[in-house]
């Protein structure tokens, strides 16, 4: 009888926010075209570790399963990425799965991304409009601007760039690459441009653009290929111009 092929997962687990992390290993049946999410679902169906002992199912987050929502971000074999697009056949075994360390752990692989969402609120990463009446069609954006702005709009707030950035940690209030890039996106919008100076002023405060150390880890790790460092470079120029305007009283 042919031996059944299996895969091994080493999962860094944590029972709660204040609990100590520990590693638990699992051995599950192999199926072609498995991704890390399907492997975790197999553990959920039969929560036994590699030693055959019953255990609690591993907790994680996922939604779209097609690298759009950003919910399933985790560290896989030492690299922050999306679990839905991480194919088992392309991963070195045993597959090491851990929560992203930049954010507080809620349980197992579930993290609290509030730091990133607070940063987006801080820079007003939205288009402010009055929806109480029909405003009619909005202003058109030049095609040359729309093309690069669309690339920035692909951000799914997955947090991978913040995890990869060495300047985003519990000793720093740096808002991180994704919120910076969103400032460039919304400042480029004909309506969002009304709040351009306010956003740039925010970037010149503590935790703003000066926190970037230009490691370029963010642009290498972004699952959507967003030109994050290009945005940061452009914002460096914009904030410098804004600073000179303030000095000159313009």
From TrEMBL:
<comment type="similarity">
    <text>Belongs to the succinate dehydrogenase/fumarate reductase iron-sulfur protein family.</text>
</comment>
<keyword id="KW-0408">Iron</keyword>
<dbReference type="GO" id="GO:0051539">
    <property type="term" value="F:4 iron, 4 sulfur cluster binding"/>
</dbReference>
<dbReference type="InterPro" id="IPR009051">
    <property type="entry name" value="Helical_ferredxn"/>
</dbReference>
<protein>
    <recommendedName>
        <fullName>succinate dehydrogenase</fullName>
        <ecNumber>1.3.5.1</ecNumber>
    </recommendedName>
</protein>
<dbReference type="InterPro" id="IPR050573">
    <property type="entry name" value="SDH/FRD_Iron-Sulfur"/>
</dbReference>
<dbReference type="GO" id="GO:0009055">
    <property type="term" value="F:electron transfer activity"/>
</dbReference>
<keyword id="KW-0560">Oxidoreductase</keyword>
<dbReference type="GO" id="GO:0008177">
    <property type="term" value="F:succinate dehydrogenase (quinone) activity"/>
</dbReference>
<dbReference type="InterPro" id="IPR004489">
    <property type="entry name" value="Succ_DH/fum_Rdtase_Fe-S"/>
</dbReference>
<dbReference type="InterPro" id="IPR012675">
    <property type="entry name" value="Beta-grasp_dom_sf"/>
</dbReference>
<keyword id="KW-0001">2Fe-2S</keyword>
<dbReference type="GO" id="GO:0046872">
    <property type="term" value="F:metal ion binding"/>
</dbReference>
<dbReference type="InterPro" id="IPR017900">
    <property type="entry name" value="4Fe4S_Fe_S_CS"/>
</dbReference>
<keyword id="KW-0004">4Fe-4S</keyword>
<dbReference type="Pfam" id="PF13183">
    <property type="entry name" value="Fer4_8"/>
</dbReference>
<dbReference type="GO" id="GO:0006099">
    <property type="term" value="P:tricarboxylic acid cycle"/>
</dbReference>
<keyword id="KW-0003">3Fe-4S</keyword>
<dbReference type="InterPro" id="IPR036010">
    <property type="entry name" value="2Fe-2S_ferredoxin-like_sf"/>
</dbReference>
<feature type="domain" description="4Fe-4S ferredoxin-type">
    <location>
        <begin position="146"/>
        <end position="174"/>
    </location>
</feature>
<dbReference type="GO" id="GO:0051537">
    <property type="term" value="F:2 iron, 2 sulfur cluster binding"/>
</dbReference>
<keyword id="KW-0816">Tricarboxylic acid cycle</keyword>
<keyword id="KW-0411">Iron-sulfur</keyword>
<dbReference type="InterPro" id="IPR025192">
    <property type="entry name" value="Succ_DH/fum_Rdtase_N"/>
</dbReference>
<dbReference type="GO" id="GO:0051538">
    <property type="term" value="F:3 iron, 4 sulfur cluster binding"/>
</dbReference>
<dbReference type="GO" id="GO:0022904">
    <property type="term" value="P:respiratory electron transport chain"/>
</dbReference>
<dbReference type="Pfam" id="PF13085">
    <property type="entry name" value="Fer2_3"/>
</dbReference>
<dbReference type="InterPro" id="IPR017896">
    <property type="entry name" value="4Fe4S_Fe-S-bd"/>
</dbReference>
<keyword id="KW-0479">Metal-binding</keyword>
């Amino acid at each position: 009888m042919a031996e059944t092929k299996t895969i091994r997962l080493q999962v860094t687990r944590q029972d709660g926010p204040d609990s100590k992390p520990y590693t638990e290993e699992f051995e599950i049946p192999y199926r072609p075209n498995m991704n890390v999410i399907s492997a975790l679902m197999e553990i959920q169906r039969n929560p036994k570790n590699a030693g055959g002992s019953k255990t609690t199912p591993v907790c994680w987050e996922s939604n779209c399963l097609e690298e759009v929502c950003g919910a399933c971000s985790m560290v896989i074999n030492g690299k922050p990425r999306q679990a839905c697009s991480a194919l088992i056949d392309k991963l070195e075994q045993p597959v090491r799965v851990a929560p992203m360390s930049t954010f507080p752990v809620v349980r197992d692989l579930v993290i609290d991304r509030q730091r990133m969402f607070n940063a987006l609120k801080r820079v007003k990463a939205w288009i402010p409009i009055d929806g109480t009446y029909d405003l009619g069609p909005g202003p058109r954006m030049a095609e040359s601007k729309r093309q690069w702005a669309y690339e920035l709009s692909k951000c799914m707030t997955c947090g991978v760039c913040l995890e990869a950035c060495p300047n985003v940690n519990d000793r720093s209030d740096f808002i991180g690459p994704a919120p910076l890039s969103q400032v460039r996106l919304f400042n480029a919008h004909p309506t969002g441009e009304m709040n351009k100076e306010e956003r740039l002023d925010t970037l010149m405060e503590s935790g703003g653009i000066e926190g970037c150390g230009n490691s370029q880890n963010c642009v290498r790790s972004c699952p959507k290929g967003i030109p994050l460092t290009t945005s940061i470079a452009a914002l460096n120029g914009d904030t410098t111009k804004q600073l000179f305007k303030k000095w000159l009283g313009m």
